[in-house]
Each structure stands twice: as structure tokens, then as C-alpha cells.
Inverse folding.
């Protein structure tokens, strides 16, 4: 990372059961890495692992919600994609979760920046990850007649579920 830039992280919307809360940045919880030099802002995107200038529809987050970080910490964050991936156990309904049924698969989402990111679900027929609307359906339960129920888990639990359900190991390797 360059000393000519000031680096920042921005907190993210955190899913807590059926509510979304804006949580402040912590070492383990942020949604994007930003840098600024002479009032010119850029955001790092994992899609192509590049810094992108703020143009068009992209907006710089509220400065009060951003936290300064060192160039070294920014370098660590942009090198480690696993820090930016969240996993959810997928249940067909909240009732299945309530009666302690096993999850049927795993959903993952990449937390990174102001651009749209496709959520993915592990699908046995394809023996891999494919795009899904499960997270959107879960977050917008009033708009969907049978939304799935998702419970946030870590990468180890996600691997275990995929192995138990589909007999495939290493699904969370990025």
C-alpha cells in the first residue's frame, strides 16, 4: 500500500435474526476498504481485485461511519478474501429451524463495497456454487410467500454442512 493515501474501512449492515442493524467497524466486521489522496476517493473491489475511482452511481460513505486504518492493515484486508465472506445455514422455512431440522445447504455472500454482489448457494446438482436470491428473500420476508430461514455460521460449519449433505469437501476454499 502507498503512503500517499489515507485508508479507511466502512462498517456494514449486520443481519440479526429478522432485523438489520448498522454496526460500527471492528477488526472483523467491515464492508469495504477505501482510500483517498487529495480528495480523490477509491474503493477496493474483490470482483477484479483492483482499486476503483468513485464515479457514476458510486458514492463515498458518510465520513462519520468510516474508520481510518493503517496502510499495513489495508494491505492485509485486501489480500484476504476470506475475511469478506459470510456464510449462512439454509433452512427451507423458519419452522424447520425451530424444530431443529438439519440445514439443507449453505448460502454465502461476499461483503465488499458499494457494488452489487451476487449471493451464492451450494447446489448439489451442479456440485458447486451458483447464484441465489435466498438472502434477499430472507431479508424481505413480507414480499415472499415462502422465504427460507438463514442462520449465520462460520466457514468451518459451512464446510461441514456441505460435506454432510453433498459429500463434498473444501466448498469454502476461496
Amino acid at each position: 500500500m502507498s503512503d500517499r493515501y489515507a485508508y479507511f474501512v466502512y462498517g456494514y449492515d449486520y443481519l440479526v435474526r429478522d432485523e438489520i442493524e448498522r454496526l460500527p467497524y471492528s477488526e472483523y466486521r467491515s464492508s469495504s476498504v477505501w482510500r483517498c489522496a487529495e480528495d480523490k476517493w477509491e474503493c477496493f473491489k474483490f470482483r477484479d481485485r483492483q482499486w476503483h475511482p468513485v464515479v457514476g452511481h458510486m458514492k463515498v460513505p458518510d465520513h462519520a461511519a468510516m474508520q481510518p486504518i493503517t496502510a499495513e492493515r489495508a494491505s492485509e484486508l485486501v489480500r484476504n478474501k476470506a475475511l469478506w465472506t459470510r456464510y449462512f445455514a439454509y433452512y427451507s422455512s423458519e419452522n424447520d429451524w425451530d424444530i431443529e431440522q438439519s440445514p439443507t445447504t449453505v448460502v454465502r455472500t461476499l461483503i465488499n463495497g458499494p457494488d452489487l454482489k451476487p449471493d451464492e448457494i451450494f447446489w448439489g446438482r451442479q456440485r458447486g456454487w451458483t447464484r441465489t436470491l435466498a438472502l434477499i428473500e430472507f431479508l424481505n420476508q413480507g414480499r415472499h410467500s415462502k422465504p427460507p430461514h438463514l442462520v449465520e455460521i462460520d466457514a468451518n460449519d459451512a464446510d461441514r454442512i456441505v460435506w454432510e449433505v453433498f459429500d463434498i469437501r473444501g466448498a469454502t476454499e476461496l
The chain has two domains: 6-79, 83-166. The helical segments are 71-79, 94-98, 134-139, 155-166. The longest strand covers residues 85-91. The mean pLDDT is 81.
